[in-house]
Every structure is written in structure tokens, then in C-alpha cells.
Amino acid sequence: MPTNTPPHRSNRPRLCKALGVAALGLGLTFGATPAVADATFPSPEGNGSLSAIKFSADTVKELKKIERSSRHNVKVSTLRELGIPNATSERGQDLYVATVGTGENHIWVQARIHGNEPFGTDATLNLLKSLGRNGSKQYQALRDHYTFHFIPMYNPDGADDNIRHTTRDADNRRVDLNRDWATNGFTAKESSAWYQYWTEVDPMFALDIHHQGLKRQHDTNDPVSMSLGVSLAPGGPTLPGLSGGSYDTLTRQSMVHVYDALSKYGYTNVDRYQVGNNLEIDIKGGVVSAMMLGLNHNGLNPEGHSHPAVFLETSGNTSPGSIGQKARGKLIKQNEHAALALFTGLMDGTIAATDPERWEDIPHAPTAGYQTDYAGIVPK
Ligand SMILES: [Zn+2]
């Protein structure tokens, strides 16, 4: 979710992963420079990180493998196969979604809208694998209650280039896909394709998985492994006015529930997502924000379908030295624990029974205001 803008455009062709870290030279900076961190957190000694990152072809291969080996009907499709016109990335790559479950409650789980934020891809693939194979009562209940729509790689071009954006084929302009579900947006093909799919699914909830830079808790200075976020700030200028305030309540309840669930794991240290300068995020053109706003683009959502949505920010990213191998498995796993807690808590009523005011108890700096994409900084 961090909003760094690359200093220059690039005409580079697809990144060859064999290039390795040293050859990247992308000039990526994410707030904090990698610092010495605990063994369980991203470490500057971590090297070879790109070799463990899934690019587009790896992801497609893994999806097909999961589909073949699933026992509970995992279905992998391209959006083109689903009849969505012109549904490719800017570079013409197919866009893949995998479904599992037979329930009437549709859940949308997307990862890698920012191409250089890789672990959501691994986490969604692992969740898909478990939901497709696990025969336990808990997983059967999830499959009966939900139909899951997993998008392990929203932005395959950005992933292959190891950059945040997609790059427009027409003019080489870079587009942040997470600001492109906007009234004047839909400037990239990926946005139109995924948006149309969203209007066909009509989910009841969405989860969006990101990375942030290395972060420390504001008061204790302990390294943070994950931050929990809502892209229209709870209690902020926008969210309380949506759906009679129900999304303001349900998103906070959900994040408190996830916070409690992750607290059981010793390696996690979770806080609330904030942008710099103690500001909360309040963007309308972010994909999961537009979902909550019920955006009607091109007349495809005339009924104004909307639903609550939240996001996760795992610490560390693909800039050199930011992701240590030691931490990789745990950083991925915390996303899976968070997602499963969310799915289960929404299903069994635990989240509905959670006190939303405990959102204030999740560590965060005192809120100074709101960073918006519609009115600059709005004071509290
Ligand atoms: Zn992001």
C-alpha cells in the first residue's frame, strides 16, 4: 500500500528473475531503509530473495497444479474464459482467478495488486490449496458457507517487472492499479477486467493483501510483522456514512478479531496500518474502497452493490535486503492465519459479537488526520 512513486519510467522488457537482486537497480525505497531486525523478521542479511518470489508463470503453473490435485473442486479460470472481453494485463497476459466452495456467500481475496508485494501470492495459493484438499469439518464448513474467489496475482506485469505499477502498453505510463477504480480512473486494462468480474461476483466481503516497508511499533519500537488496515478510515470522513455505518462497525470488528487471532502466534507483532505522519488512509480510488462505495462504472453496477473490505500489510518487500529468507515462511503464514480467522469469524458470528471499539486498542500512533486521494490531507 505504500505510495512511493518510481523516479523514472522504464522501458525494460520483462524482468528475468535470473538477473538477481543486484541487477535490479529499481531505486525502490519504502519509507524505512532496512534495519537490523530480529531473526523472525525481515533481515538485511536475507539474500536471494527474488529466487523465492513467484512471478507470473510460476503462479499459473502452481494454480494448475492445485486445480489438478484438489479434492473439492478448485476451478482455475482466466477472465477471458469467463467471457470478460479484453480481459488481459496491459502486456496481454491472462488474468487468473481460482474458485473453491459452493456457498452462496462470495468472498473476494486478492493479492499482488502491487507487483513488488509478493507474499500475498504465496498466501492465497496456500489458502486455495488447503481449501481444495483439507477434509476437516472446519474446512468443509467453509466450503459449504462460502464460494471463494482467489486472485493470487492481480497485476502480473508489475509482478514480472518487480514494480508496484502496471505499465500502459499505449504510452508506457505507469498506473497504480490500487488508485484506478475511480470515477476518472480505469486507465489500465487490468482495472476494467477485474472490475467487471467483481460486478458479476457480487461478493459479501473482500480481503486485499499487501506489503509495507519494515516498520516498528510507534511506542515500543518493536518490529511489526503485519499491519491491519481499512482503506476508508473507520471513524473517518467517509466510512461512517456508508451502509448506515455498518461497514464502519464490521471492518473494525473484523480487524479486532484478526488481531486477537494473530496474537496467539509468538512470531507476530501486529499494529494498525497508518501512512506517514500519523495519518490514516482514506482513499476512494483504491479497489477495496470502491467496493465499499459501490462504484458504478460503465453502468455495470447499477444496483450499487457494495460490501465491507479490509487489507493486510505484511512487513518487508522485494527491495534488496528487505526480505530475509528466515522470515519468509512466517510472513506468509501470518496472512493465512489472518484470512482463516476472518473467514471463520464472519461465518460463526464471532466477528459480529466482537466489540468494534477495541479497534482503538490495536497499537497505532495518535491519529492526526486523513491522507485522501480526493482532498489532500484532511485534518481530524
Ligand atoms: Zn500495496
Automatic annotation (TrEMBL):
InterPro entries: Peptidase_M14 (IPR000834), TAT_signal (IPR006311). GO terms for molecular function: carboxypeptidase activity. Residues 1-37 form the signal peptide. Residues 51-297 form the Peptidase M14 domain. PROSITE patterns: PEPTIDASE_M14 (PS52035), TAT (PS51318). The keyword Protease applies. Its cofactor is Zn(2+). Belongs to the peptidase M14 family. This is M14 family zinc carboxypeptidase. The lineage of its organism: Bacteria, Bacillati, Actinomycetota, Actinomycetes, Micrococcales.
